[in-house]
Amino acid sequence: MIPAVLPTYARSELAFERGEGAYLITADGERYLDFAAGIAVNSLGHSHPHLVETLIEQGKKLWHTSNLYEIPEQTRLAERLVANTFADSVFFGNSGAEAGELAIKIVRKYHDDTGHPERYRIIGCQGAFHGRTLATLAAAGNEKYLKGYAPNVDGFDSVAFGNLNELRAAITPETAAIMVEPVQGEGGVRPGSIDYLKGLRAVADEFGLLLVFDEVQCGMGRTGKLFAHEWAGVTPDVMMVAKGLGGGFPVGAVLATENAVQGFAPGAHGSTFGGNPLAMAVSNAVLDVMLAPGFMATVDKNARILWNKLQALADRYPQVIAEVRGAGLLLGIKCVVPNGEMVDKLRAQKLLTVGAADNVVRLVPPLTIGTAEIDQAVAAIDAACRTWSA
User: Structure pTM?
Assistant: First the structure.
């Protein structure tokens, strides 16, 4: 008999009653250090005081009106994102997948509006993950997630991540855009090099393509800058954002240049829930923290501390850890042993992590962790590694 909740998740039996900072706590008081953070969502940890206070205050006033009316907090959030990024305009939705759908629509509409409707194909990268809708699944091209949903949505081509020569060879008169995660998360925590990101911008400019960055997972401070592409000093035309933007509250966004969205007018796109007062209040509270002086520098400092400690473990246990990879606080342990077994052993050590492709264990802790939490996580990983080397 099928359960009441559609059985699409391979869940552990853990259930949590509350959270405090970097910790999740069960009903019987067991504390787990959370280096999964809702899969890079709880960017400021659990029950952050400023987010809680903002949510309560806004909840007492107004939750939802729809976009039939002006929403002052939405305007404020958009203006702050524009002021701190490449973008000229922002659209708010509810998830990363919705952001991906709109990014695809922007690409197609741009070329249609500029007299080239034949240009509709988007080149993505192998190992990508852009969401679970039919179009975003097709954009990523992962057969594991596409199985059973044929025919695939047309309009997407895939090349090797990091290979500019293969990218250039895939461009045809129908190519409209390039869509890339600056750091692949689901695909195995693989960062694109600075030269690669710069090369993507150069290729897009050379061929008249839009450059779309998917920063749903690697954005919102996760790499020590507000967005990962900033490390390369390049800018996209369109960017997808979600996860950490709401600090745990469901929200997504697409940021774009004026040129990319020049043809958008009332009726061109919409969302019932997107950008509602409750989501916007919480997201503005997230930005309050992330844009505060010194916040990103602290994230970067702690990320480097964690990286160095993980690298020391990799050197100590080569029979367990093949390499450490990633950027900022989006880190991956590529395992020699099965990564699922490593996740289980770490959970037994009261450390929560999440798997990724290429036999990788992902570490995506709250951006607010300190050295004490880092030391506790490293000790747990050390203990798990010892079980294989005993």
Answer: 0.96
Decide if 357 contacts 188 (C-beta within 8 A): yes
Q: What is the DSSP letter of 230?
A: G
pLDDT tens readout for residues 253-277: 999 999 999 999 999 999 999 999 9
Kindly give the residue spans of alpha helices, DSSP state H, lying in the chain: 37-40, 49-61, 72-83, 96-113, 134-140, 143-146, 164-170, 194-207, 277-290, 295-316, 339-348, 371-389
Please state whether beta strands 252-256 and 351-352 pair in parallel, antiparallel, or not at all (unpaired): unpaired
Distances 108 to 112, 169, 188 between C-alpha atoms, Å: 6, 21, 29
Q: Is 11 helix (H, G, I), strand (E, B) or coil?
A: coil
The two tokens of residue 211 are: 């450059």
pLDDT at residue 251 greater than cutoff 90: yes
Query: What does the block give as tokens for 157?
Result: 């081509």
364 phi/psi in degrees, rounded to 5? -130, 70
144-190 pLDDT tens trace: 999 999 999 999 999 999 999 999 999 999 999 999 999 999 999 99
CB atoms near residue 307 (< 10 Å): 18
